[in-house]
Inverse folding.
């Protein structure tokens, strides 16, 4: 049992030590790292969807945000976090609204048929990697130790009503997510997965807030 635990700890350290000696792992093209299959989607019953149709605006500068790992980081990663957030929002809104969601490049004018517009104003993503401890040994893999990687995603969303007036702006923050390497997953793959999971959770929070507003608007008394 103890030997299995030690082996499970040494293997990822050996792999990452080898990557360091080789000058880091090869970069994966950012476009290949956007994978909606990593969103933890589940079936949504039609009757549980919120009535309404909305527009989603992700400005070009936000959509094009790419996280680049530091040159001294053991992980060579170019993560298109802007597109990950964009796809998470499209999926969450598409699942949660009866009328669906349409991506737009500008705020729709009044009378366009949208009950609201969500705008992703800005996003922030950070990744940190550190050795918790490391000891050199005379035999391969030549080092024994333990690493820890963490990431944090946050983005700002504004809600505009059907007339284009700003209703609210909110920040959705996933907090710091800590991941410790195992035999089953490479560090870069794990961080890509975590980024998708964080984006999906935050997009669902935004969808929940939007649903509350749409439902309140639907029952609000109207002037005749």
């Amino acid at each position: 049992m103890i030997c299995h635990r030690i082996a499970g700890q040494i293997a990822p350290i050996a792999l990452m030590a080898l990557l360091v000696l080789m000058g880091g792992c090869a970069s994966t093209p950012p476009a290949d790292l956007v994978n909606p299959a990593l969103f933890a989607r589940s079936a949504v019953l039609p009757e549980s969807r919120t009535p309404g149709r909305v527009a989603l605006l992700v400005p070009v500068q936000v959509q094009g945000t790419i996280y680049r790992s530091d040159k001294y980081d053991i992980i060579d990663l170019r993560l298109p976090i802007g597109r990950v957030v964009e796809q998470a929002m499209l999926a969450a809104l598409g699942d949660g609204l009866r009328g669906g969601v349409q991506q737009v490049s500008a705020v729709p004018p009044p009378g366009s048929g949208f009950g609201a517009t969500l705008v992703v104003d800005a996003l922030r993503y950070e990744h940190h990697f550190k050795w918790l401890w490391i000891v050199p040994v005379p035999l391969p893999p030549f080092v024994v130790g333990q690493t820890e990687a963490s990431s944090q995603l946050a983005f700002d969303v504004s809600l505009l009503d059907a007339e284009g007036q700003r209703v609210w702006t909110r920040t959705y923050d996933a907090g710091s997510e800590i991941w410790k390497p195992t035999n089953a997953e490479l560090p870069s793959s794990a961080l890509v997965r975590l980024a998708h999971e964080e984006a999906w959770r935050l997009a669902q929070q935004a969808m929940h807030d939007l649903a509350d507003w749409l439902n309140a608007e639907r029952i609000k008394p109207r002037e005749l």
Q: What stands out?
A: The longest strand covers residues 116-136.
